[in-house]
Specification:
9 helices, mainly alpha
């Protein structure tokens, strides 16, 4: 959990010290570099979409527009780092706990189905935020405007977004463990039914 807070704090620092960072690398430089834009279109479609948005009237004069892609790339690095770290931490436990959890899921079928729906929603939300869509500025019709990347003057939106993605990325192996145990609970039922 400490790493999750650290990553969020770094996002706020990147946002607040953007004048120093954009001297080295800025969103405009990344967007106009053809190779970088092509690579981003494949790896991180959200960043390529943000490049297109930066030319619109809503963002053309936005004071924080130059830090947008730096934050996008930082959040992507956080996502990858948390995945690697969490698989290192939880990798061994996944195999050890699978049978125990599948027994619990077999006993509490309704609870396990609700949990799987919640996990699917969480994983889908994480993948959407990392790769596809994050609002850059808070708009009145958005219910989640507090998660806008450039939504405030202090970088709290970027920090909250980083926190949420880092936390969900860290929990991803546990989500995988729960899904595998859930599926295994059905396979044991099928085997026991076929034997009787």
């Amino acid at each position: 959990m400490g790493l999750v807070v650290f990553y969020s704090f770094v996002s706020v620092l990147i946002f607040n010290f953007q004048h120093y960072i954009t001297r080295v690398v800025s969103s405009t430089e990344i967007c106009f570099n053809r190779l970088a834009f092509d690579v981003m279109s494949w790896i991180l479609p959200k960043a390529a979409w943000h490049c297109e948005l930066m030319g619109t009237s809503k963002l053309l004069l936005h004071p924080h527009r130059e830090i947008t892609l730096v934050l996008d790339l930082w959040i992507f690095v956080v996502f990858l780092a948390q995945l690697v770290f969490s698989f290192g931490v939880f990798g061994k436990d996944i195999r050890d706990r699978q049978d125990e959890l599948s027994g619990i899921f077999r006993k509490h079928r309704k609870m396990s189905i609700n949990l799987m729906l919640l996990l699917a929603l969480s994983i889908g939300m994480m993948i959407r935020m990392v790769f596809f869509s994050v609002p850059l500025v808070a708009e009145p019709e958005l219910h989640h405007g507090w998660l806008a990347l450039l939504g405030d003057r202090y970088g709290l939106g970027a920090g909250l977004l980083t926190f949420l993605i880092a936390f969900l990325s860290f929990m991803f192996p546990l989500f995988g463990l729960l899904v595998l145990a859930f599926l295994k609970s059905f396979s044991k039922e099928i085997r026991s039914n076929s034997q009787t």
